[in-house]
Specification:
The complex is a heterotetramer, with 2 copies of chain A and 2 copies of chain B. Chain A is α/β, with parallel strands linked by helices. Chain A has 13 helices and 17 strands. In chain A, α2 runs antiparallel to α9. Chain A is globular. Chain B has one domain: Alpha-Beta Complex (Sufe protein. Chain: A). The chains are: A alpha/beta, B alpha+beta. At the A-C interface, α2, α3, α4, α5 and β11 of A face α2, α3, α4, α5 and β11 of C. The structure holds pyridoxal-5'-phosphate (2 copies). One pyridoxal-5'-phosphate sits at the interface of chains A and C.
Chain lengths: 426, 153, 426, 153
């Protein structure tokens, strides 16, 4: 595992030095939910508060200048990280807001058009129109679209899954047609680990004139991603899963689409002119950033980007790939253990869900927790995916740069311990 | 705190050998409760026998704590008048919110005292409470209890 | 000014020790835009990241338990601060999101009802219905309602202002009638400083069955506020203006109203059950908190509440009142200076806007900035209010707990310097 | 850095005594630009004289920097062919983005070199640019320039 020196990295994360449950050293394998933060990120946030804190874009005094500069540099830095220009980067509070921003463009345009406001017809929905997602979406990329349909009369469709946890691509032919107005697809599934062929799907979407959206929450933190290469109109992700602070998310959009979309949250700092009778709006990205912004969090996220780039995203991906291969090998051979998701490491990320025969995932997680191993149990905000695989829930490990092979060994040991404890034949 | 304090033998026994599991022929009130964070499910049914005592039917899927809790509930409250059952329910709720510091009364709670360790694991309290919240809901739906006197959020 | 020891307080704010513009000590008078943060808040946030960081409400391992506990304790603490129970407190990213959440309840309900979803009729708008705001709203409490009207056919009305910067209460008679579905009013104006009789207005709103909303952005940081005493259904404010971190806001709602409102942002953690075909939602406040939450910021906000309560909100208000009286006296007597807003300190907060004859507010601000005094210039996101007073913009001072009388003296000196510099007779 | 480097005498002079302020009788292109953060306004009008030189009309309200900048603009570009004016505009934009490190060419920029200090105050750059952005817009609207060659965002 050349490149990623886990021991050295761990030293940058104070929390990884703590113990849990009666002095057991912490093994954190829940980075799919949220990652830990290196001191570099904490220092950057704190330094901002201690030296330059002010409302960005809302003042002319020196602190306001500095805060605006810090915020806009952070935007440029985050853009650069994914191959995008500053003006294509919108800051939100999390990926969920980013995806809602995308979805509300449709319901808002539809309502505005009904009362005479001119809107881009691509965002105007009516009965007969359809919205396409997949059966492996995180709730954040499913429910907003369900709501759009409930508010416009459009119909939700979804790409089904194979037993191996991949998209049934042959179904696309039927699912994407002239009724399709938007296709929103997860890049890497948070529950199955599957990496989807999003560029191909976006091309199919564009062929019928649909808007293409990608949920890149689980890909951008873990591999090099050039958002333009995805071919999407909009790409959403969160800062807190990529070493950044809580409270900040990102929406990338092409200039064309961001210009065409109506605003979402409205208020201060997103306007051009305001009168009681009506207002006009600033160009993107400002148009989508109403209110005093999360400047400290943007600064922290930029520091997270610096940290990841210093490691190199190729190296990060290679490191996780090695962990994935090892974990799939070990878990795949463990009696009574079934992996939910692709069994091979190709086109697959490091989030691995599994079930243990005769033990509820919650109980597996509890035994692991008791050994100091933090994993996630439940439906992982992808409940329909659980239903598809006829499991009530799964146990999921999701390693990151601060995990190594020994952490995988610990999980295997933990599963065996659970089988012993619950007296399940293994 | 050892893992054994959470998973006491009584709990594991109820989990492996649930008592009275199954549905009623003619339920008065039915409540299907789900724990949205982990997907645990309990379908709880109530009716009253000729003597006024509670009849309980249930099914469910989920972790050992939630399913054992349903089994213990069945054992504790079936056959009791609604008011008696409610006292036990309240005692169980109190136990769960004790953060592990309670000295539960075995007279009242029977096998349910085994859940004392659960109170130290905030994320599991909801599992243990699931059938008991469903019970209240089923009683309200079946007209055995009014919303007002069944308020313990 | 018994109670508030400014020198001692200043020591808690590292940024106030810095210099600006060639070594001038910083005098920060822009707390209306955003306040500075004491070390206590920075320490609390950092301690959370270094010991308990995890996704709240999304895990069963020890860190997740601790993060959930920290988040919910913060909610309880913030609720307590304003006299509300935990379940009445919704965390958002800022007041702007809180107010949009309120406004979207109307546009979303209207759209949902059109396609057959059952909604509370109070939130369903149609042509002929009206929405009432005031002419002194921050854009954050104006544009969302303009957008609601544009999406539903309802009409926006507003309470006009007196020349002294107060609400023309006699106009209420005409403005609130059976067509009124929602009344949304700022508690304390960020540009004029006016404190409005919101309890009276809310009572009038309720008398016609309208929903009542209060923008308490500028009141809750500065005086004791019991949200229930305001009589509103919904009350919105921001954390960053009350010593808290950026990236967190609050919406208080009565249990009744929060239950009746449809969700706003949708996704993970706000659900009861999810299937591809449709979803049901958790009870409030979870219903309104989709996505991984800003846990660190909530923890920081709770620490800010602790800090303010240790000072005592009565003391904070008394301190600011004294500053306001002093500033009004001095500025009121300065030749060529005109205060925009009430000239008396009664029912008035410490944000004071003014214009200097012959010098553009931007230039006044620049001269002050050059002397190390940070004030805000412009329309303060209340552009229609500027139009009402026929000024293109104003210069605004907005002191807080770390300011004292000498800071006001410095402003007066700065104004005189500006008059000298721009050769304006004074 | 002194405040005098920002407010040079030339700027204050243009502010107090704006050159050529007023509107055209028959404008070809008109652009009304507002700075949304501070409310500064400029209404810029363009037309061409018989010899092809630019005619400039303008009005506005706002801070000394924005209004002086409009006055300087008037002096610099009126009467010039559009292409020549565009060169000056580009030079001014470059000056504004120089962060104060430029050595502006007085041959090209005339009185506009006084704005070199503005470039050190990021919040004021927009003020100085306001009339120049409006000029471009008015030229495009008047058909004197196409969008493509006037792209400097
Ligand atoms: C009165 C008032 N309302 C609303 C807001 C908006 O708050 P935020 O920008 O934090 O969302 C502000 C401050 O900007 C304000 O002063
Ligand atoms: C694939 C995916 N999409 C969306 C989200 C939502 O992100 P957040 O909760 O940060 O808004 C997550 C993580 O929770 C995720 O894993």
């Amino acid at each position: 595992m050349a490149g990623i020196e886990v021991a050295r990295i761990k030293a940058d994360f104070p929390i990884l030095g703590r113990t849990v449950r009666d002095n057991k050293p912490l093994i954190y394998l829940d980075s799919g939910a949220t990652s830990q933060k290196p001191v570099e990120v904490l220092d950057a946030e704190r330094a901002f508060y201690e030296t330059s804190n002010a409302a960005a874009h809302r003042g002319a005094h020196q602190l306001a200048e500095e805060a605006t500069g810090a915020y806009e540099s952070a935007r440029a830095r985050v853009g650069e990280f994914v191959g995008a220009a500053s003006e294509n980067i919108v800051f939100t509070k999390n990926a969920t807001e980013s995806l809602n921003l995308a979805a509300y463009a449709f319901s808002n345009s539809t309502a505005l058009a009904r009362w005479g406001t001119r809107v881009d017809p691509r965002f105007q929905l009516k009965p007969g129109d359809s919205v396409l997602v997949t059966q492996m979406e995180h709730h954040a990329n499913l429910i907003p679209w369900q709501e759009v349909c409930a508010k416009t009369g459009a119909t939700l469709r979804w790409i089904p899954l194979t037993d191996d946890g991949r998209l049934e691509m042959s179904a696309l032919e039927e699912l994407i047609d002239s009724s399709t107005k938007v296709v929103s697809v997860v890049h890497q599934s948070n529950i199955l680990g599957t990496i989807n062929p999003v560029a191909e799907i976006m091309a199919r979407a564009h062929a019928v004139g649909a808007v293409g959206v990608v949920d890149a929450c689980q890909s951008i933190p873990h591999m090099p991603v050039d958002v333009r290469a995805l071919g999407a109109d909009l790409v959403a992700w969160s800062g807190h899963k990529m070493l950044g602070p809580t409270g900040i998310g990102v929406l990338y959009g092409t200039g064309e689409i961001l210009n065409a979309m109506p605003p979402f949250l409205t208020g201060g700092s997103m306007i051009a002119t305001v009168e009681m009778e009506g207002s006009t709006y600033a160009p993107p990205p400002q148009k989508f950033e109403a209110g005093v912004s999360m400047v400290a969090q943007a600064v922290g996220l930029a520091a997270a980007v610096d940290y990841l780039e210093a490691l190199g995203m190729q190296q990060v991906a290679a490191h996780e790939h090695a962990l994935t291969e090892y974990a799939l090998l070990l878990l795949g051979h463990l009696p009574g253990v079934k992996i939910i998701g692709p069994g091979q490491a190709e086109d697959r990320g490091s989030a691995i869900s599994f079930v243990v025969e005769g033990i509820h995932p919650h109980d597996v997680g509890q035994i692991l927790d008791n050994m100091g191993i933090a994993v996630r149990v439940g439906h992982h905000c992808a409940w329909p995916t659980c239903r598809r695989f006829a499991v009530p829930a799964t146990t999921r490990i999701s390693p990151y740069i601060y995990n190594d092979l020994s952490d995988i060994d610990a999980v295997v040991e933990g599963i065996c311990e659970a089988q012993r404890f619950f007296k399940v034949a293994s | 705190m050892s893992i054994e304090s959470l998973y006491q033998d009584i709990i594991l026994d109820h989990y492996k050998n649930p008592r009275g599991r199954g549905l009623l022929a003619a339920p008065l009130g039915v409540a299907f409760h789900v724990n949205p964070t982990c997907g645990d499910e309990v379908n709880m049914q109530v009716a009253t026998a000729a003597d006024g005592g509670l009849l309980i039917g249930y099914e469910g899927t989920g972790c050992s704590i939630s399913q054992a809790s349903a089994s213990v509930l069945y054992e504790l409250v079936r056959g009791l008048p609604v008011a008696e059952a409610e006292k036990i329910r309240m005692a169980f709720l109190e136990l769960m919110h004790s953060q592990g510091h309670a000295e539960p009364d075995e007279e009242v709670l029977g096998d349910a005292i085994a859940f004392v360790g659960v109170a130290k694991y905030p994320a599991r309290i909801k599992c243990a409470l699931l059938p008991w919240m469903a019970l209240q809901d089923a009683e309200i739906k079946g007209g055995l209890m009014t919303e007002a006197n069944g308020d313990q959020k």
